[in-house]
Amino acid sequence: MTKHVNLRLPDDVHEKAVAAAASDDRSLNSWLISVVRRATESSGAPDRLDDDPT
Predict the structure, then answer these.
(1) Is this structure's pTM higher than 0.70?
(2) Residues 6+ apart with CB under 8 A from 27
(3) Three-state SS for 1?
(4) d(CA 43, CA 53)
(5) Which of 8, 24, 31, 43 has its C-alpha lying 20 to 30 A from 14's C-alpha?
(6) Contacts by 2-9 with C-beta closer than 8 Å and gap 24+?
(7) Could you tell me if 21 and 31 are in contact, meaning their C-beta atoms sit under 8 angstroms apart?
């Protein structure tokens, strides 16, 4: 099962994510899934990153 999420990214973050996905030979969606999966599965992952504006 999959869920749909609307994600709003600032232009600069989007550009960097697109570039990172391309360098990994993945779609942006596939790359984002891998990043979220790693962040949620690693035992020491912080709930909030230092540069998180929220």
Answers:
(1) yes
(2) 21
(3) coil
(4) 23
(5) 43
(6) 7/32
(7) yes
DSSP letter string, 5-52: ------HHHHHHHHHHHHHTT--HHHHHHHHHHHHHHSTT--SS-TT-
Token pair in block for residue 46: 């912080």
Which two tokens mark 4? 């749909």
CB 27 within 8 A of CB 21: yes
- Reading the block at residue 49, the tokens are 């990153």
